Amino acid sequence: MRSIKYLYRIAFVCLLVSAIQGCNDDFMDRFPLDQINDENFWRTAQDLELYNNSLYPIYINGFGYGWADGSVQPFGYNISSIAYGDIITDNAVPNSYSRVAANQYNGHITGSSGSGGWSWGNLRRINFFLENYQRGNVPDDVRNVYAGEVYFFKAMEYFDKVKTFGDVPWITEAFETNSEGLYAPRDSREIVMDSILLVLDKAIAYLPQKGVEKPGRLHKDAARFLKARVGLYEGTFRKYHSDLGLDGAKYLQACVDAAEQLMENGYSIYSTGDPDKDYNSLFAQFQYRNNPEVILYKEYSADLNLGSAFSRYYAQNQRHQHGATRDLVEEYLCADGLPISQSPLYQGKETLSDELTNRDLRLRQTVCDYGEYALASHVQGSNNSPLPNIPGLSGNKCPTGYRIAKWFIDSVSDWDLVTRGQQATPMFRYAELLLNYAEAKYELGQMDQGVLDNTINKIRARVDMPPLSIGNIPDDPSLEQKYAQYIGYVPAPVLREIRRERRVELAFENTRWDDLVRWKAGKFLEIPVEGFKFEQERYPTVVVDRDVFLSEEGYLRPYHQVLPEGRQWEDRQYLFPIPIEDLVLNPNLVQNPGWESN
After folding, report:
1. Residue 248 is assigned to a structural domain of this protein
2. How far apart are CA 467 and CA 333, in angstroms?
3. pLDDT digit string (tens) for 354-376?
4. What pLDDT score was predicted for residue 28?
5. Into how many domains does the chain fold?
6. What is the pLDDT of residue 524?
7. Which top-level group of life is the source organism from (predicted)?
8. Contact 54/289 with Cβ under 8 angstroms?
């Protein structure tokens, strides 16, 4: 009988979740939320856990599941967003150019209501839980744990909404299709962001300490990390988008406070003492339960046949057939801590191997040299040896020649069967927390050598890079010229190096777009997209001006034909548009600036 009741609850929660997923009018007419009133549900902790289990794959999604072939809207990259998100930035480019990065996005015109990220079904699930979770006779300390999980998810949902659209409605109800609240105007950024901090504080209060939580579930440290990330984003966004007239100091302080709590909790930078491999191996593991750097992760279960095809298709370079940009590669320092324009160690750009020699060791653990990170030869299109598979060769393309080594896992058993992809995903890691803290401390005017030693220099130590000294910041006229030309301001040397460290350490972890947006640095996307220097003798069958196109210096130019003027940035791109159909349905909504006539 107990098993039957358990199966009944699973079936009911599936029905319940299905009933509140979206705004399909026919379905909602048959199963309105006010008629889902099973007296046997919401009564036990097991019921609350079952309900929340449907939210975990949405927000703690790792590399996705199964074929992992969905896409994240409105951005257009693969659902394994942590690895692919950089393809819309200046860090990487796909073989077929990103319409978002090229300022050609038109999803608000072609998409229907609720498309392009302007969807509220997940929030409806969240609010439905918050309206009902106290109905049962569950002890407060137990049910509050599940409420803490949902508050965490609500913060994630709204943080993404604000980053994408700016002002959005702050919704506290699980609306029906005829609710007047569906026609509410957008609330101000101030109201929504303050509300995000409030629900994060609730999550921190309700969630268990790390180490006490059930396996695979949230804990206080995850909520503190998210608070630090939110605080840095909003604090710097308000500073560099000064036209908003909003003060970001309290958000920067929220970042600092949350980070300091985590910095006292025993985390450290992962290292086995092998600087030539440790950075790369951090992202090629099957579990992170005992990893001192990883605060929140997603693991997969072979026993339950739950896996992701990420490893298989990432290794074969199929999802976006992408490559790193020359601009990213050139920002890595040399092994002596100096920029390439200043260091005597720099070997030049004549060959890929030259570029990777005597550099920050993270570079060659992020970008493949000739013959490195090659998979078994029987996997079609996967072999990077001896040459990156540039256009003009058969198989899947790396348009810049800088093929990505980060996230590579050399395990046939992991990617041979789609549903057994077991590569785990580190979602929140301590290195980012230290970078968040360093930047927030600088922006608050609280930077000193002690801050650098406890943050940037701990990260650099993993790869034997020289520590950063606040009184001896190396000059980098080339990078400063890029800031002046494209962005219109030049950051102070310490901040410039914090930003460099962030770009290098977090490359291909889907942070770059957010960084460009909050720094108001979107015009970096106008830097010409280039790859490595083409060597005809290495590619005798590749024909220049047919298969590949080159700059005057001989570097690959992936978009020479399709984007002859390069990618163009407009400041409207800092926010995405609301679908036109939603503007028609709700006349109280106002389109974001610059998108009104499109």
Report:
1. yes
2. 12
3. 999 999 999 999 999 988 887 65
4. 28
5. 2
6. 98
7. Bacteria
8. no
Contact, 514 vs 574, CB < 8 A?
Answer: no
Comparison of pLDDT for 217 and 29, the residue scoring more: 217
* Model confidence pLDDT, tens digit, residues 485-522: 999 999 999 999 999 999 999 999 999 999 999 999 99
pLDDT > 90 in the chain, percent? 80
106-115, 373-382, 439-448: range with lowest mean pLDDT: 373-382
Res 19 pLDDT > 80: no
Rounded Cα distance, 41 and 399, in Å: 53
- 140-165 vs 220-240: helix crossing angle, rounded to 10: 20
Q: How far apart are CA 153 and CA 148, in angstroms?
A: 9
- DSSP symbols for 490-548: ---HHHHHHHHHHHHHTTTSS-HHHHHHHTT-GGGGGSPP--SBP-TTT-TT--BTTTB
Residue 160: domain span: 2-58+105-263
Domain assignment present for 594: no
Q: Which residue has the tokens 């590619």?
A: 539
* Domain endpoint, select from 509, 525, 541: 525
Asked whether 334 and 466 are in contact (CB, 8 A), the reply is no
Task: Kindly state whether residue 494 falls inside one of the protein's structural domains.
Answer: yes
For residue 11, give both structure tokens.
């079936």
Look over the chain and give the mean of its residue pLDDT values, rounded to a whole number. Answer: 90
Query: DSSP per residue over 245-298, as a string?
Result: ----HHHHHHHHHHHHHHHTTT------S-TTTHHHHHTS-S--TT-SSEEEEE
Task: Please tell me the predicted confidence (pLDDT) of residue 8.
Answer: 35
CATH number at residue 178: 1.25.40.390
Three-class secondary structure of residue 201 per DSSP: helix
Boundary residue ending a domain (222, 246, 263) = 263
d(CA 119, CA 117): 5
Mapped to the 3 state alphabet, what secondary structure does 345-396 carry?
CCCCCCCHHHHHCCECHHHHCCECCCCCCCCCCCCCCCCCCCCCCCECECCC
Q: Are strands 77-78 and 71-72 parallel, antiparallel or unpaired?
A: antiparallel
Given this model, what pLDDT does residue 432 score?
Answer: 98
Distance separating alpha carbons of residues 51 and 150, to the nearest angstrom: 10
Residue 161 lies in a domain: yes
Three-class secondary structure of residue 238 per DSSP: helix
**Distant-in-sequence, close-in-space partners of 83: CB < 8 Å, separation ≥ 6:** 63, 310, 314, 406, 407, 508, 509, 510
Asked if pLDDT for residue 32 goes beyond 50, the answer is: no
Distance in angstroms (rounded) separating the CA atoms of residues 36 and 114: 24
